[in-house]
Amino acid sequence: MSVASAPPTRLIAFSSGKGGVGKTFLSLNVAAALAMSGRSVLLFDGDLGLANVHVLLGMQPKLDLSDALAGRCTIGQTLLDGPSGVKVLPGASGNRGMAELTTSEMTQVIQAIDGLTPAPDYMLIDTGAGIGTQVTTLARLADSIVVVVRDEPASLADAYGLIKVMHQDFGSRNIDIVVNDAADVKRGEAVYHRLSQVATQFLGLPLTLAGVVPHENATVTATRRRETLLTAAPHSAAAIAIRQIAARLETSRAGSSGPRFLVDRLGPAERTDAT
Q: Which residues are bridge partners to 146 per DSSP?
């Protein structure tokens, strides 16, 4: 990101209106799928105060983003070696201060990420759930936002709320939908169409279906083993769906990358806070 001759990093934010939809598990597995295809991938745990990517991997970071922000280390020194060559940038776990960062502090975090070299081909941001300032700030950095939903009324209602905020307040238009833990593909597609029709009717915003991940019992096994589903059950329908999602994200909107420096993707007020 800071090397002028390097191709721009593609940024993809995984977000959800509510928690408990499998967003972190999906972002981790999609990151692994991209890495398996030969891409360099950074997975940023953007749920800064309740980070849990490292928990899914059974890791105990000695340093995390809170240490970098406090000046105790560089952001590069916090990186963990994840599955399939994925680099993991851990947030803090159970840290209220990190959950309540000011706009100026968030900008410092973003500037620090800008300084990472070499720049990865992809940075996946696993945001927190909801429509709080941290979530919307990190989602705004992305070239595309993947909203993860499940086939349940609260998930769909909150997903629509997130999409509405990102579109109306921040102008986001590149929004993909993943229906997770679906009973079957047909049912998952119906969930997507329902959400897409509402977004088109009331927001004038077409959504894209990135994929449907069917229910998979091996997901529980993979989580207990602290593995990705791609290694625990590589031939399962869910693992195949995740690899297809990664392939779609890799090819879709390939030319849509925004400004090279992340801080340039923020509003004037936030950029002023950085100076």
A: 14, 176
Q: What is the pLDDT of residues 43-81, one digit of tens each?
A: 999 999 999 999 999 999 999 999 999 999 999 999 999
Number of H helices, E strands in the chain: 12, 8
Helix (H) or strand (E) holding 246: helix 237-251
Query: With contact defined as beta carbons under 8 Å apart, do 88 and 43 qualify?
Result: yes
Mean pLDDT throughout 25-33?
98
Q: What is the largest CA-CA distance in the chain?
A: 51
Global model pTM greater than 0.85: yes
DSSP 8-state symbol, 40: -
Residue 13 and residue 154: Cα distance in Å, rounded? 21
Task: With beta carbons less than 8 A apart as the criterion, state whether 230 and 82 touch.
Answer: no
Q: Which domains does the chain have, with CATH numbers?
A: 10-273 (3.40.50.300)
